[in-house]
Amino acid sequence: MDPTDDSRRPGEDSEAGVEMMRVVTPAAGKVVALCTATAAPYIALKTYWAFGGRAGLADGFDLVDEFEKNGAPDALVWLERHGIDFTAVLALTGVMLAFALVRPWGRRLPRWLLFTPALAGTLLIPYGLLTAVLALTQNGSNAAPAITQWVAPAGVGAFLGIGTALGVGAWSRLNQAVSEHMPR
Predict the structure, then answer these.
(1) Which of 124, 42, 138 has the alpha carbon at shortest distance from 88?
(2) pLDDT tens, 79-108?
(3) Please, are residues 117 and 44 in contact by the beta-carbon 8 Å criterion?
(4) How many angstroms separate the CA atoms of 84 and 95, rounded?
(5) Whole-number Å distance between alpha carbons of 98 and 167
(6) Closest Cα partner for 31 from 131, 136, 181, 163?
(7) pLDDT tens sequence across 140-158
(8) Considering only CA atoms, which of 173, 174, 167, 172 is closest in space to residue 94?
(9) pTM for the predicted model, two decimal places
């Protein structure tokens, strides 16, 4: 076969007809889809609260007041007052980033733009584990909780799911990038 012939597929070895480029495996795509699905209850609940819903919150607890008391930036307080929870937006961003790592349309984005936040996002895994431990131990104090016990699994599931999806997606994309640069 002519080495200047461009009719072969990218990554295909012209001599043996063997595909050299490792693409994102279907398993990685399925893991990302499953893990990001765990964020749906969290995103729905946080959006519900941002629109004024009270289910899962302790009596008398107000999210906007809590934001102001803790010194949140005015922009975040404004968003919360207008039905936009910034943590729900961040969770959606993490979901989209995880899919960008494993879907063909994500290949149009520079790797560094995907890897940097994806690797940082894997820190959600230990954060989710810590959240689970604190929820099981009643936050280690006798203070009245701001949320009811059934809410904690939504947060833990989202943190662990998004963190795992970002890790799997980044690993899969890294392996794909390494395979593309393997000598033929």
Answers:
(1) 42
(2) 999 989 999 999 999 999 999 999 999 989
(3) no
(4) 17
(5) 8
(6) 163
(7) 566 567 777 888 899 999 9
(8) 167
(9) 0.79
